[in-house]
Design brief:
- With about 250 residues, this protein is α+β, with helices and mostly antiparallel strands.
- The chain has four domains: about 30 residues, no CATH class; about 55 residues, Wheat Germ Agglutinin (Isolectin 2), domain 1, CATH 3.30.60; about 60 residues, Wheat Germ Agglutinin (Isolectin 2), domain 1, CATH 3.30.60.30; about 35 residues, no CATH class.
- Helix content is about 45%, strand content about 15%.
- It is built from seven helices and twelve strands.
- A three-stranded antiparallel sheet has the order 2-1-3. The protein has a three-stranded antiparallel sheet with strand order 5-4-6. Strands 8-7-9 form a three-stranded antiparallel sheet.
- β4 and β5 form a beta hairpin.
- It is found in: Secreted.
- It holds the Pfam family Kazal_1.
- InterPro entries: Kazal_dom (IPR002350), Kazal_dom_sf (IPR036058), Spink4-like (IPR039932).
């Protein structure tokens, strides 16, 4: 409204003529100023003024010596903090200096990224070893097909805090030692059995007898020989009846 005027009643009129018309109709008004009434501006101004009056202005110096309030806000200095308290904020000083919440969060985030990156970097690439049969024995007692395969396993063990090295060329002797102990045990057992009784010298005679164990023996001598072995094991064997055992 280019020709608008603001009446003393606070109403905007599209022209001075319209305002005069209202005067002629008995309304006691006059032109306050040309242009629209600044009602919205006035309301905004008075609201801002009221807000400014509600919060007391603080005469604080510009020194930067931050304090952290319990509201999580960093105040540039103690004066600014006290200004907030005087204006009705219910808070106390959490710590001297800036609030560390954001900094701590960022630090934890960055540390997490670094740990993740280190973990990714620490992942071992697959070992490319030749298909070569030249066994070596590792310090863990395992036989590896070649030195390359052992070194590959050593990298994995190192990442787990373990150490692995070549004990000696060739296969580990664990299996051979086991077999040797087994054979020695058999020999010792055989020697012990041999010391308990002499081998039986029985005639090649076909005169079968049935033993108390249900087995048929070619003759009585063979049964007695078997009885000696059973006796050494804590068993008893005797002739059940002459002839073959009946099924």
């Amino acid at each position: 409204m280019r020709n608008a005027v603001c009446g003393s009643d606070g109403v905007s009129y599209i022209s001075e003529c319209l305002l005069d018309c209202q005067k002629d109709n008995g309304k006691n008004i006059s032109i306050a100023y040309k242009g629209e009434c600044m009602k919205l501006f006035a309301i905004s101004f008075f609201c801002l003024l009221a807000l400014t009056m509600a919060q007391k202005p603080c005469a604080c110096h510009g020194d930067f010596d931050p304090v952290c309030g319990t509201d999580g806000i960093s105040y540039p200095n103690y004066c600014s903090y006290m200004c907030a308290v005087e204006n009705g904020k219910d808070l106390t000083i959490a710590n001297e200096g800036s609030c560390m919440r954001l900094l701590i969060f960022l630090a934890i985030y960055l540390i997490g990224l670094l740990v993740f990156a280190a973990g990714q970097k620490g992942q071992l690439k697959p070992c490319e070893c030749p298909i070569l049969r030249k066994p070596v024995c590792g310090s863990d007692g395992e036989t590896y097909p070649n030195t390359c395969a052992l070194k590959c396993a050593a990298k994995i063990d190192k990442s787990r805090g373990l150490e692995l090295s070549v004990k000696h060329p060739g296969e580990c002797m664990r299996l051979l030692i086991f077999l040797a102990i087994y054979l020695i045990g058999l020999l010792v057992f055989a020697a012990g059995q041999k010391g308990q009784f002499k081998p039986c010298e029985c005639p090649i005679l076909r005169k079968p007898v049935c033993g108390s164990d249900g087995e048929t023996y070619p003759n009585t001598c063979a049964l007695k020989c078997a009885a000696k072995i059973d006796k050494s094991r804590g068993l008893e064997l005797s002739v059940k009846h002459p002839g073959e055992c009946k099924v």
